[in-house]
Write a structure and sequence with these properties.
Radius of gyration: 28 Å
Strand content: under 5%
Strand order of the largest sheet: 1-2
Number of strands: 2
Distance between the termini: 66 Å
């Protein structure tokens, strides 16, 4: 495992010089590194799915007993395959999307750094190593989002993402330190079998870790940075939304579910925040006309649903979590790369300006169509299986579950309407001016999305293979024990089927009325010119203003006042030290040593010099 990280790190260093020397073939050469990592991880499927995690460690700080411990179990294997597999396709896609860009080598380096950090995060067993990789993903995403740094919107989006996820990272660090202190274990494997219910630090640990995970995975109210990150080049959006960054928070929630789940509010908090995030994301998604922003908000929806499914704590819910995670990674990567191909071919991502593209771009259209069907939860795609398990998992929770199922049906219907907006109108709608100038893009731009979209179809048909090789081991890691996994396309007439039919009906209604859907009345918009970005800007201005008020008494620019304050502090400390000698007393002071005349003279000289300097004109 360390070897895999080393290969990716080496590719990161070689990316700029390799691109300068062999630019046309650089992408194919650099893609060999994640492809090799993918193959190596795939060879471990049999052993890991059989219940034998792989472990590896190397001493990092021997004097403190700190080491880099890596562990490959079902959950980290699933994430590792997605990170390296989709990463390979994204690197090839980037070579076509940014062809002849003067900073293409730098972009490859940023992308591979991001990949290395994310793979290290999911493989790390040690808390400290995991946190280092966690922060490295934030730094790498900042570099990628701000890649077009000449644009103010890109710089603003990158700074916003860094501040939100970086602030959450500080909370996570505190939570991990408390978790290690409370449990006595500093590795995730060492937490197996531990429960912190009733521990005095339980609520503090819960709040800090959830804050760190929620900021990373864009849960409400921290979801603002994710749609704005669409200012990054499309390869970044495709990778960030499908297999990395936003999934890091979800991964850590799943990793800690066996320890923090159960009593103590974990399930309720995850279900509440997840449902709110899914609902907000769905309402905002159908209001977008930019294809990438629409897809970004649907990612917010799925992140909310994943968090909500973890909160169920039921067998079906945890199975649905893993299935949805895999299905979403496949279709969302395909949709983003397809949206970038459409922009390259037509010069626009605005849905109202697109139509009749299927004849000009059949391969891209097929990729987006297949991915959109899986996104909408239509059979026989893997997304349909995920949707059925979602409903079954929530219904296992009883009365509360049925209430959350209502939210899930509504948000899934809006997802279906969004899928129609991405595929039906641009490709099967009436031709527009964009269709007349559109041409099919080069192979690197359609091969990746087509492979991912077909993957969602293949896994749906042959679902017994992922059931045995991937889903079973991952669910076992999330649940903290054995769970019987049985995937199916048709499980008979069940309440979940009824919820699916209702989803299809509502989705058709929402798609037909998407223009007026979820838009507030005109008077409300006129009276309250407030949105998330405005609140963010005002909040940031308030923080800067508060910082200025706090610093002004000390950073006033006056040397005289600085020296006077220094003299006052030194004088106070000297008086406290001399008080026991002169017979005075200071609360909490200890008896002093015998009076040293030389020390007394030195103190007096220091005070006199400081006072003279403060009064000197």
């Amino acid at each position: 495992m360390l070897f895999l990280l080393g290969v990716l790190a080496l590719a990161t260093l070689l990316a700029p010089p390799l691109t300068r020397r062999w630019e046309p073939a650089a992408g194919w050469l650099l893609a060999l590194a994640p492809a090799a990592a993918f193959v190596r991880l795939a060879t471990a499927l049999g052993e890991v799915s059989g219940g034998n995690p792989l472990q590896e460690s190397v001493s990092w700080v021997p004097a403190l007993g700190v080491e880099i411990a890596l562990r490959l179990d079902g959950l980290s294997l699933l994430f590792g395959l997605l990170i390296t597999g989709i990463g390979t396709l994204v690197i090839l896609y980037a070579g076509g999307y940014l062809q002849d860009h003067r900073h293409l080598g730098r972009f490859y380096a940023y992308l591979l750094l991001f990949m290395t950090a994310m793979l290290g995060l999911v493989l790390a067993d040690d808390f400290l190593a995991m946190f280092v990789f966690w922060e490295l993903t934030s730094l790498a995403s900042f570099l990628l989002i701000s890649f077009k740094h000449e644009k103010p919107v890109a710089r603003r989006a990158a700074l916003q993402a860094l501040l939100v996820t970086g602030g959450g990272g500080l909370a996570l660090l505190a939570g991990l330190l408390l978790l290690g202190t409370a449990s006595g274990a500093w590795t995730f494997s060492g937490l197996e079998g531990s429960r912190l219910d009733g521990h005095p630090l339980h609520h503090a640990i819960l709040g800090l870790i959830l804050l760190g995970c929620f900021t990373k995975s864009a849960q409400v109210p921290f979801h603002l940075w994710l749609p704005n990150a669409m200012n990054a080049p499309t390869p970044v959006s495709a990778y960030l939304h499908s297999a990395t960054m936003v999934k890091a928070g979800v991964y850590l929630l799943a990793r800690l579910n066996p320890v923090l789940g159960g009593e103590g509010g974990w399930g309720g908090l995850l279900a509440a925040f997840g449902a709110a995030t899914a609902l907000v994301g769905a309402l905002l998604a159908v209001r977008q006309t930019d294809m990438k922003r629409l897809l970004a908000y649907t990612t917010v929806v799925v992140l909310g649903q994943l968090t909500m499914l973890l909160g169920t704590g039921t067998n079906y819910g945890l199975q649905a979590f893993v299935i949805l995670l895999l299905a979403h990674s496949l279709y969302k990567g395909a949709l983003f790369m397809g949206a970038g191909a459409v922009e390259q071919a037509t010069g626009t991502r605005e849905i109202p300006e697109l139509g009749g593209l299927f004849r000009a771009m059949p391969l891209t259209g097929a990729a987006i169509g297949l991915a959109a069907f899986s996104n909408g939860g239509l059979p026989p795609f893997f997304g349909f299986i995920a949707k059925e398990f979602k409903y079954a998992g929530l219904m296992e929770m009883g009365a509360v579950g049925w209430g959350v199922t209502t939210v899930m049906v509504f948000t899934n219907a809006l997802l279906l309407a969004s899928a129609g907006l991405v595929f039906l109108r641009p490709f099967l709608g009436p031709p527009t001016g964009a269709a007349s100038r559109a041409r099919e893009v080069s192979p690197p731009l359609w091969v990746g999305p087509l492979l991912l979209a077909v993957g969602g179809l293949v896994l749906g048909y042959w679902h017994h293979w992922p059931e045995r090789a991937l889903v079973n081991a991952a669910v076992r890691a999330v649940a903290g024990g054995p769970v019987e996994v049985k995937l199916y396309l048709w499980g008979g007439l069940t309440p979940a089927v009824g919820a699916s039919l209702l989803t299809l009906l509502l989705g058709g209604v929402f798609y037909a009325n998407c223009h007026g859907l979820c838009r507030p009345p005109q008077g409300w918009r006129t009276r309250f010119q407030v949105n998330g970005d405005v609140l963010w800007d005002r909040g940031l201005e308030g923080i800067f203003r508060l910082a200025g008020l706090a610093a002004r008494p000390f950073q006033h620019g006056s040397l005289r006042l600085h020296l006077a304050l220094l003299a006052a502090v030194v004088g106070t400390v000297a008086l406290m030290a001399l008080a026991p000698i002169s017979g005075g007393s200071v609360p909490g002071s200890r008896p002093g040593a015998p009076l040293n005349p030389a020390a007394l003279v030195g103190c007096l000289l220091a005070l006199a010099g400081a006072g003279g300097a403060a009064l000197m004109r």
